[in-house]
From TrEMBL:
Keywords: Coiled coil, DNA-binding, Membrane, Signal, Sugar transport, Transcription, Transcription regulation, Transmembrane, Transmembrane helix, Transport. PROSITE patterns: HTH_ARAC_FAMILY_2, PROKAR_LIPOPROTEIN. SMART domains: HTH_ARAC. This is ABC-type sugar transport system, substrate-binding protein, contains N-terminal xre family HTH domain. GO terms for molecular function: carbohydrate binding; DNA-binding transcription factor activity; sequence-specific DNA binding. InterPro entries: Homeodomain-like_sf, HTH_AraC, Peripla_BP_I, SBP_2_dom, Tscrpt_reg_AraC-type_HTH. Pfam families: HTH_18, Peripla_BP_4.
Length: 566
């Protein structure tokens, strides 16, 4: 019974290990590295931010420990606040955010920072210093660079039309201030027209009329390349495009974008406004790894003109080609990772099957060994029965002979001789029975006294008898322990110890030891087995420990006990 239970528990353990192994093999390629959850809140959709998003995704793919989630709010501050609240609720480790508007987004970003989330601002700032780090170009410096460039390009000055972003976002305010300071070096400049971006995008007819009426505009300075390109398209309709110098901000690569627009002559110049997506991810990695980092990180800028636009365009094309190759390698690595996980799962299943097979084999061997022991025991008992039968047959023959002698010799039957012989044989049988009882004695003196109590409840009597029966059949097993008895009786360890102590006034271990030592006493008295064989026979793992326990209990060694024939 115990072997079957052991096998059952071992099988359950192996299955649990297998399930755990298969689960962990599909949750990631490297479970030793904690996953860093990064929530990226992007303020809007445009070509420049597409480049930023691509850089963030590409750089994140090079860091398997990062888990990136991107949410874009489409120029909607309320939606972006909702996205950040969701990231806080999801308990992201890092919040990467490009605020749509400074003032409305400040409270929720401060909330994320105060919640223990590492907050990294990219491109735009908030009206607070409660953030971990900022990375992006200096919008004031960007505007000033454009103004300084024009001062050198037009030493005599000229009339300027500015197309500006809203004052509610930090780039709009900072670029305007920087541009004014840049052109202040040349007193010949005059800002003749001031246009907001929504006029160019949402009211093209109004902007077209404004351009037509501004026949003497020399320069169009736009806060983005896109707005400058729209202005150039409308000016071309009125044949004014060739007489106006168009300069924007962004200088991003790609078809129809800043660098290519300068290369194709649509724009005369563009001030590079780097996205900083890849730098932002590297900054996040440094923060979460506890490496040194700066809170304020400013990206450098240059002015893109027709002279360097071709060079930059070719470089960007090569970078784009390399990016495609990197993306292909990342995809290939992902496929290899999936194959690795599948092979790992298969190997785990095979190992579990092998272990189960091993357990079954061990169980089969133990079962065969137990059956062999049972067969040997039955054979010995059968031999004993046959010997008893022979003695009975012999007795019967002696009786027949005595009766025949008495009859033939016509002598009276010798009753005294017959009774004496019968008493001798009965005494021999009694001695055998007494020896058998002693050898199978399963209870201590204390248990015997308890079982004689008339006031003992039936359930307690049954409890003690079950204990005695189980100990009698398992005391020879050196691995037998109290927990096996708990499983057999269906009780907890504390309940078993408390109940045995209450009924027998001794512990479970003491009771089992008493049974083993009484068995050992019997074998020492009735057999010539060695001390070592007796120790193993009564469930002790070593003869030395058996001798130690025996002497502690009876104040004499097993050898001394045998010699004195207690």
């Amino acid at each position: 019974m115990k072997g079957v239970k052991d096998m059952r528990y071992l099988l359950v353990t192996l299955i649990a290990i297998g399930v755990f192994t298969s689960c962990t093999s599909t949750t990631g390629e490297n479970t030793s590295v904690d996953t860093i959850k990064v929530g990226f809140s992007q303020c809007c959709d445009d070509g420049w931010r597409d480049i930023m998003n691509q850089e963030v995704k590409r750089e994140s793919s090079l860091h398997p420990e990062l888990s990136l989630t991107l949410r874009t709010s489409a120029n909607n501050s309320e939606l972006q606040i909702q996205h950040i609240e969701e990231f806080i609720e999801e308990k992201v480790d890092v919040l990467l955010v490009s605020p749509n508007e400074s003032a409305p987004l400040t409270p929720v970003i401060e909330k994320a920072y105060n919640a223990g989330i590492q907050v990294v601002l990219i491109d735009r700032k908030i009206e607070s210093n409660l953030y971990t780090a900022y990375i992006g170009a200096d919008n004031f410096e960007i505007g000033r660079t454009a103004g300084t460039y024009l001062s050198g390009k037009f030493p005599e000055g000229g009339k300027i039309m500015t197309i500006e972003l809203p004052e509610t976002i930090s780039p709009g305010v900072e670029r305007a201030r920087g541009f004014v300071e840049g052109i202040s070096e040349n007193p010949g400049f005059i800002i003749d027209q001031f246009v907001r971006d929504h006029t160019v995008i949402n009211m093209p007819d109004s902007f077209r009329r404004l351009v037509s009426e501004s026949q003497d505009i020399d320069i169009v300075f736009s806060h983005t390349d896109y707005l400058a390109e729209v202005a150039h398209s409308i000016a071309r309709e009125t044949d004014l495009a060739d007489s106006i110098f168009f300069i924007g901000i962004d200088g991003i690569p790609g078809t129809g974008r800043g660098i290519e627009a300068v290369e194709d002559g649509i724009l005369n110049a563009s001030v590079l406004y780097p996205t900083g997506g890849d730098e932002a991810v590297r900054l996040i990695v440094a923060i979460v790894q506890g490496l040194p980092y700066q809170k304020e990180n400013t990206l450098e800028t240059i002015v893109i003109e027709p002279g360097n636009a071709v060079i930059l365009s070719n470089q960007m094309k090569r970078v784009s080609k390399l990016q495609e190759m990197i993306d292909e390698e990342v995809e290939r690595l992902d496929r290899l990772r999936v194959n690795y996980q599948s092979q790992r799962l298969l190997i785990s299943i095979l190992l579990i099957a092998l272990l189960i097979g091993l357990v079954l084999a061990v169980s089969l061997i133990r079962s065969l060994w137990s059956k062999q022991r049972a067969y040997t025991s039955l054979r010995e008992k059968n031999q004993e029965i046959l010997e008893n039968q022979k003695q009975l047959h012999k007795l019967a023959e002696q009786l027949d002979e005595a009766d025949e002698i008495a009859f033939n010799e016509d002598k009276p039957f010798d009753v005294t001789f017959f009774i004496t012989r019968i008493r001798e044989m009965l005494q021999e049988r009694k001695n055998d029975v007494q020896n058998a009882v002693k050898s199978n004695e399963i209870v201590s003196d204390q248990l015997s006294e308890v079982l004689k109590r008339e006031d003992l409840p039936p359930e307690d009597l049954d409890f003690l008898r079950r204990i005695a029966d189980y100990v009698e059949t398992h005391y020879e097993d050196s691995t037998f322990k109290a927990t096996d008895l708990c499983q057999e009786l269906g009780v907890s360890r504390s309940h078993l110890y408390r109940k045995v102590k209450e009924l027998l006034n001794e512990g479970v271990t003491s009771y089992v030891e008493s049974v083993r030592l009484r068995k050992a006493q019997f074998l020492l008295r009735q057999t010539d087995k060695s001390i070592a064989d007796i120790a193993y026979a009564v469930g002790y793992s070593t003869p030395e420990y058996f001798a130690k326990v025996f002497k502690s209990r009876f104040h004499t060694s097993p050898t001394g006990f045998r010699e004195n024939k207690h």
